[in-house]
């Protein structure tokens, strides 16, 4: 499974601080499951996400539950929540990713990929791609975390975003 984050409002002008993943659809942010795990761990560490159940008033809270991203049920992440993530990721990672967090993200990524590969093999399925080792160095990891925060900064001005699953 994968995820597609999509801004509530259409992007008319892409802000200079956010180079889109897809120039033809700058409001879309596709995320693989293994990446979402990484982003959630980084957001929890940055203090801009909470590890708790989804609250009935989730949309008006400042910090969202990590389950909002995991459930991918079409829930809207509010502009206030986007702003919390944008600020948190920028402050936490703009100058770099702490070595212990990078090691934790690497171990989780590689462990999850190995788990998924074993699951695929146990079902006698053939996988041609998608089980690569942690593809980041210190610089590219920092760039991806800050870029994810920049998407949130853009979404703050566009009504937030919706989280949907992609098969």
Notable characteristics:
5 helices, 14% strand, alpha+beta, 47% helix, globular, 167 residues
Description:
The structure is a single chain. This protein has 167 residues and is of the alpha+beta class. The chain has one domain. It is 47% helix and 14% strand. It is built from five helices and six strands. A four-stranded antiparallel beta sheet has the order 2-1-6-5. Strands 3-4 form a two-stranded parallel sheet. The chain is globular. The model has no long low-confidence stretch (mean pLDDT 91).
Which helices and strands appear, and what pairs or packs with what?
Layout: E1 2-7, E2 28-32, H1 33-46, E3 49-50, E4 64-65, H2 66-71, E5 76-77, H3 79-93, H4 99-122, H5 138-156, E6 161-166
Parallel strand pairs: 3-4
Antiparallel strand pairs: 1-2, 1-6, 5-6
Summarize the structure.
By secondary structure, the protein is of the alpha+beta class.
């Amino acid at each position: 499974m994968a995820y597609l984050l999509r801004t509530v409002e259409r992007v008319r002008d892409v802000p200079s601080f956010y180079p889109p993943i897809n120039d033809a659809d700058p409001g879309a942010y596709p995320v693989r499951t293994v990446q979402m795990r990484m982003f959630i761990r980084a957001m929890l560490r940055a203090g801009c996400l909470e590890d708790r159940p989804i609250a009935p008033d989730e949309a008006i809270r400042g910090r969202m539950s990590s389950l909002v991203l995991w459930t991918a049920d079409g829930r809207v992440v509010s502009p206030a929540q986007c702003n919390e993530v944008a600020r948190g990721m920028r402050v936490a990672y703009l100058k770099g990713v702490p070595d212990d967090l990078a090691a934790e993200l690497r171990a989780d990524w590689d462990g999850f990929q190995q788990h998924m590969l074993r699951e695929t093999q146990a079902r006698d399925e053939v996988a041609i791609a998608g089980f690569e080792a942690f593809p980041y160095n210190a610089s590219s990891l920092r760039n991806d975390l800050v870029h994810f925060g920049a998407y949130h900064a853009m979404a703050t001005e566009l009504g937030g975003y919706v989280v949907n699953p992609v098969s």
